Structure formats: C-alpha cells, structure tokens
Amino acid sequence: MFRNYNHRLKGPSRTLRKQMTDAEQLLWSHLRGKQLLGLQFHRQKPLGPYIVDFFAAAAQLVIEVDGSQHLQEELCNVDAARDAYLKEQGLMVLRFDNRQVLVETTAVLEEIFRVCQQRANPLCPPFNKGGT
User: Which residues form a coiled coil (predicted)?
Assistant: First the structure.
C-alpha cells in the first residue's frame, strides 16, 4: 500500500474532483463503485507530491487521463518525472488521452481490465474443475 500521503494536497484534490474533464467523468462512471473486478478506485488521489487522476491500491495502478497540453515538450518532461517517481514507489502508470477515453472507451476499459487482472491479488483462488 502506498503510504507517502501529503496532507497539503487534500484541498487541491477535492477541487480537482469537482472540476473533472468530460473524459475523466466518463472513465470514473466505469471505475467507481468497484465495477471493475471488484477493485476500489479513487479519483484525484494524492500520492506523494502528486495528485493522480485514478488510483487502485490493490492493483498498485495509477491511471492518468491527459489533455492535449500534455503533448507539449515541457509537460512531457514533467509527466516523465512524475511517472518515474510513481514507478519507484512500485506503481504502474497507464496514460490515455482525452480522445481515447471519449472515442475508444471500450478499448481503454479493456486495457485497464487486462492490467488490473494481472496486477491485483485475486480475491479468491480460481475454481479448479479437475478436483485436484
């Protein structure tokens, strides 16, 4: 479990939850309420010095939904440093752009499902049909 919590980011994360983009709102509608593999996702979650768009602790997964401004070189460098920090903490970062989430929603959800299935601890052992 990620333990490096910055209390100063609590207010800004609340503000970001109230100002989610259309793409973030759409993705949240599919992740909230443990809809995906029974995993609890948090939105606009403070992790260390950053606020990530979505976080699933059980899968140690961060999901970022980026606008077109993230294509600018300066923000690409900021994103790379952020991703490196999160990876050092043992987290995997998936990045999608707004258009992917809005237009290719099923493909985005399938990728998130695939990664979560691989990374999350199973809630119960798989059923063994052979009886062994």
Answer: none
